[in-house]
Structures are given as C-alpha cells and as structure tokens.
Amino acid sequence: MSRSSKGKEVMKAGKRGTDDSYSDTDALDRRLESFPYIEAFGHKYHISGKIFLAFDEDERQRCEVQHKLYRHSLDGALTSTRLPLDTTRILDLGTGTGTWAVEMAARYPQAQITGVDVYPIQRTKGVPPNVKFEIDNVENPWNVSDDSLDFIHARSIAGGVRDWPALLRQAYTKLKPGGLLEMTEISIHVCDFDGKFAEAELCPGFLQLFRDMCAQVGMNFTPSPHVPEWLVDANFEKIVQRSEILPVGNWAQDEKMKTRQKLMNSILNKDYILETYCSLLFQTCGWTKEQFDALVPSFWQEVQAAQVRPYVTAVFTTARKPREEPS
Question: Which end of the chain has the smaller Cβ count within 10 Å, N or C?
C-alpha cells in the first residue's frame, strides 16, 4: 500500500507552548517553553525531522506508563542486570522523563547517574543530588571519559537511533573493563498467543507498511533481533537476551499478566503509540492525517477480534565488557 507525495503535509516549525501541566514533583524544564519543534499530525518532534519520537504531553505520559510496565516485567526491579553494590557511575541513554534515573539514585545512593536525552522533558523537582541530566543526541560523542562507566542503560530509544553498531561501539569504549550494558525495547510485532508461538503475526498489512516506511527513512524500530550480533562485533561478552510477554486486549487470566495487560492497553492506544510513534513517519512518507486515520480502524479491529489473544514482547538484552581487553 502506498500514498503519493501529493498527500504530504508541510511540517510546521514553531516554539513550544506552555499548555502542558505537571505536578510540582514532576515540574518540567523551562527550556521546553522555547524548544523548537516540527509538527506532524498534531504532535511535536525534534526540529531536525530525524527523531521519530515525539516530546509532547502524550509521549511523556507514555514514558511514565512504560516505566511501570518495564518494572512489572522485571518483578519490581529496575534492571535485568545484577549490578555490583559498588557501582559508582551510571549512564542512562534516552532518559526521557528521568524517572528511572531518579529511582536508581535511591537504590544506589553512592552512584553518580547521568541521564541523556535529546529533549529537555525531565522533571526539575525531586531530583536527588547524585542525578544530573544532559540534553544531547545519544549518537553524538559522549561527554564521558573512556573506560569510566560501570553501567550503561538504554531503554526504548528505537526511533531515535540510526547507527546501532556505532552506538554499541561507543558504549564499549566508555565502559570500564568488566562494565555492564543493558538495552530494552518493545518489539514491533503483534502476535497471536494461540497461533504458532511468536510466529503468527497479527496485522501483517499494517506492520509491513510500517516496516517499509522505516526502511524508507533509514530507521530500525525493532533492533533487538540484531543486537546480540552487534554486541559480538563490538567485543562484548556474556550476552543474554530475555523476552517477557505483554498481553494486549482482554484475554489475560492470572493477576500478573492482567496487570501487564492493563498497562500495555494504556500504552497501545491511538494517542500513545499509533499517533506519537507513527505521525512523523507517515507524514515524512507522504501520508495525510486523513489517510492515516482511515487506516487505523482496521488495525484495531484485528487486534481486538474475539478469536485472538494478541501480545507483544519486551526484550531485555544484557552484556559485559571483558575484564581484560581481547588480544
């Protein structure tokens, strides 16, 4: 399925307003008031047009719900990695609202935690002294000495990274010998639990269209299948991947899965995912808002069909830099 360039909307450039409201605890950086952006289907994106993750209120709310979902998938833990108690330097790539960094600071009060994100959407109140935030593209050279980090954490940065192997090579360089890396992404595959496990993809038409558009703009939204290979190429060791099922719809039976399902349903609605994830992508590829809105109902009809039990997966990848450099 394709759309001609005649339907392409002009991206709007402007300054961010002050209509968003957060509690005092989650008060936002004043830089957002004058942060330049382009607009796609009513959502705000990086002025470069190359970051396919929004930064408006919907996206910030999604980050908060997603944080709860990841913690639940890890049985309340903040990481899949088992960190040493003497961990002192942590880098959080794509820190978003900064919630993970703030909670890690309470867990590891001796550690200095730096959160990096392309958007200044981090809270400004309730931030402990061992946390700082930097605004930068994670693909740029990091303001960190080589061999200096104990742990690098990267979560849900697909849509903002074009050269994954280069990112992982930089992570390797910045980690201390024996330093640890963790990457987490939600796979962009909707599967049927009653089909061949992890093979019966639902909504193949929509998802193939999405993948074709990703290829068109040079963006990989589902890097997890390739991450182990990239980590090997970067000389990491002890590479482990684990996947957690995230039910969608209304079919989960036990309380654990019901909680995940509730959180996932909250994320996987047209405002949080189909809108904020797809708006700039579809607009860049020549679609109008009206054409996109006409396509969405068929996606939801298939996901919500009574005879299927849809799910996606959260993929946690961990690795270690060797304690001794390979010869």
Answer: C
Strand 36-40 to strand 43-46: parallel, antiparallel, or no bridges (unpaired)?
A: antiparallel
DSSP per-residue string spanning 211-228: HHHHHHHT--S--GGGHH
**Whether the predicted model's global pTM rises above the 0.85 cut:** yes
Token pair of 300 as six digits: 């939801």
Cα 47 to chain centroid, rounded = 19
The three-class DSSP label of residue 204 is helix
| Between residues 273 and 62, the one the model is more confident about | 62
Report pLDDT for 179. Answer: 98
Whether 193 and 119 have beta carbons less than 8 Å apart is answered as: no
DSSP 193: T
| Residues found in the chain | 327
Which helix (H) or strand (E) is 258 found in, with range? helix 255-267
Residue with tokens 């993750």: 53
The reported pLDDT for the residue numbered 200 is 64
Q: Is the pLDDT of residue 136 over 90?
A: yes
Q: How far apart (Å, rounded) are the C-alpha atoms in residues 54 and 181?
A: 25
Q: H/E element holding 311?
A: strand 310-320
Cα angle value 113/114/119 (rounded, 5°): 140
d(CA 38, CA 54): 10
CB 180 within 8 A of CB 152: yes
Task: Return the sign of the alpha-carbon dihedral for residues 5, 268, 161, 141.
Answer: positive
Helix or strand run (H / E) with residue 100: helix 99-107
pLDDT in tens, 45-98: 999 999 999 998 888 888 999 999 999 999 999 999 999 988 999 999 999 999
d(CA 197, CA 245): 11
Residues 6+ apart with CB under 8 A from 7: 286, 287, 288, 291
